[in-house]
Amino acid sequence: MTTKQKRWQRQNLVKSMLILISVILVIFMTLVGFWIPADKTLTTQLAATETDSFRVERGVFDLRQWNPEIKPLLSMNGDWEIFTDQLLTPAELSAIQLPNEPQTIPIPAEIMPGKPLSGLDANGYATLRVRVLLPEDERIYGLKFAYFASAYRVWINGKELVSAGTPVTNPAECKPRYLPSELLFHHIDGEVEVVVQVSNFHHRRMRLRPVLLGDSQAVTRLTQRQIISESLIFGSLLVIALYYGVLYLIQRREPALLSLATAAFITAIRGGIIGERIVVRLWPQMPGELMMKLGYLPVFILLPLLVIYVRDVLDSPEMDRAARLSGWGIWGLTAFVALTPVKGYDAVFQYGQGFILLGSIYLIYVMVVYGFRKKNRGAYAMAVGSVVVLLAAASDMLREFSLWNAPELVSEGLMVFIMIQAGFLAWRFNHAFLRANTLATENAAMYEEIQQMNRDLEEKIRQRTLELTNTNRKLMLMSRTDALTGADNRRSFEEKLQKEWHRLQRENRPLALIMSDIDFFKEYNDQFGHPEGDVCLRQVAAAIGKTLRRETDVLARYGGEEFIIMLPNTDKDGACRVAEKIRKNVEALQISHPYSSIHRVITISFGVAAIIPSRKTTPEALVRRADQALYAAKQQGRNCVVLADEQNTFTLKDLQNESENNHQQDFQQDLQKDFQQDFQKGL
């Protein structure tokens, strides 16, 4: 027989043994539920003091010999008085005739369907009473109640101190509320009467859980200690769920992270529902049915979640079918718990917990066969955690059937499992990080070379971008500047005129324009040529620019030999003074012009117009007025300044007619002059 065949036989033997054990376990746990005696009392962590020498006897709890300094907490276990099918207040109890031999019920106890205890059915109501005889001192005492049935009310010495839900006789009026409570009280002459009304029409089973009595400080410390402990577990699981949930959303490559985050979250919810019921304390008005669903649902879907998690961690294709079934099982069980009442899923929970053990055994088998054999390091971490969960689940099942006196351990077991898995995943991430770091070190030279190439490319791009920016700036400047004189061009001047017009209109300030024209510049160009004419234009523009002192003043070349000047915040008198100064400065240049009809040097004529901008006129109208004034200056002999006003300007129609006549006269004079020159050359 080959080694492979021997291994195959061993695997089959392990499978057969596990299946046999699992089937026997499920059958045993199912049958045990039906064989529980009707008078079997409930055993929980609060009943851990059953060895106390003090016990309730026939409705009396005699503590006159009790020393709270030595033993600060006692369980009120024993036979309480019970008034079945009656909801009585302390006043009503004192008014009725009580029998010599009162009927009693053992507390704590669990009443199963079809198995009444002391005449009380699982779905019924009753009044419980116990008289407590205490030492005669001034001490403040306390009672700690876990939840009693689905609803309960407590009176101490005739005073109602707490009500959880509404004990009723009519199932339709049932308002369940599963909430623990702590009551502090003084005794009267060493005697205390405790009356409790209970009813249960919501849950399948009626649980009358243990009641603790003790010194008020001891009761408070116990409650605080349990709340702190359960809050730490609750908060830790929520942090783990949030951390791995966010990590999964970031990476999306590790589905095991999502399974672990979900398992941690539902375990946290269950931990906040059971015990001191932290979630219910935070939300006192939580409906009882919702609380029950949140408490039961994690137990139903946790095992399928762990199956999916193990498949993802071990990366075992052999578990694909089990993982798919587990996924469908999660949705089916969630719908089952959400759509059925507590009586339905509680029965499945009580008699079906063997499947949790079966699933735990299956997970251990998977780890042994697929994990250890393939030397998967995650299998060892999961095996330890699974064994802890298996033991905790077995303990809880024995506790559920009142066969084991221990606290509920499944939440703590799951906490240990999740912590182990969180540590394992952290180790795996660290291992992956070290591998990535090694690869990064090996590729450091290549990476540095690429970085250097990127830096060189970025520097070239930066230089090209800077050159392009400078070129664009120059082009923009050229598009707004006259290339010959360096002054603004007509387009730039019109944009600035519009802006200043609107600004001065808002401020109600004056705006002046000076339109100028070099006298007889055509003759200068004709005689000296265009290059000399360009030199003359540059000299005139420079002289005008030197005369303007303010940054807001604008000089622009408006036409061939025409210049226009904008003077914001300047009235007509100021504009005339500026124009006169420019006229003198240009004349002082002493640019020879022997062909001028008025002077032997270059001169210039000016038309001035000023206005306070308003909505009644436009910038174009102001330009026309300055142009009209310039025309008037030419008519008055040139080399002068003319202000546009009613005395020395003309209407637009007159100016147009006169301009046409002047153009005709100038054209005729030019023809005669050219004819005379040509005739003299011919001679």
Automatic annotation (TrEMBL):
GO molecular function annotations of the record: diguanylate cyclase activity
* Protein name listed in UniProt: Diguanylate cyclase (GGDEF) domain-containing protein
Q: From which organism does this entry originate?
A: Anoxynatronum buryatiense
SUPFAM superfamilies listed in its UniProt record: Galactose-binding domain-like (SSF49785), Nucleotide cyclase (SSF55073)
- Check the record and name the Pfam families matching this protein: 7TMR-DISM_7TM, GGDEF
Q: What highest taxon heads this organism's lineage? A: Bacteria
Q: Which PROSITE patterns match?
A: GGDEF
Q: Where is the GGDEF domain?
A: 509-646
One GO cellular-component annotation of the UniProt record comes to: plasma membrane
- UniProt keyword list: Coiled coil, Membrane, Transmembrane, Transmembrane helix
Q: Where are the transmembrane segments?
A: 12-36, 232-250, 257-274, 294-310, 322-342, 354-372, 379-397, 409-427
Claim: Protein biosynthesis is one of the keywords in the record: no
Annotated coiled-coil positions are: 436-474
Q: Name one GO biological process term.
A: cell adhesion involved in single-species biofilm formation
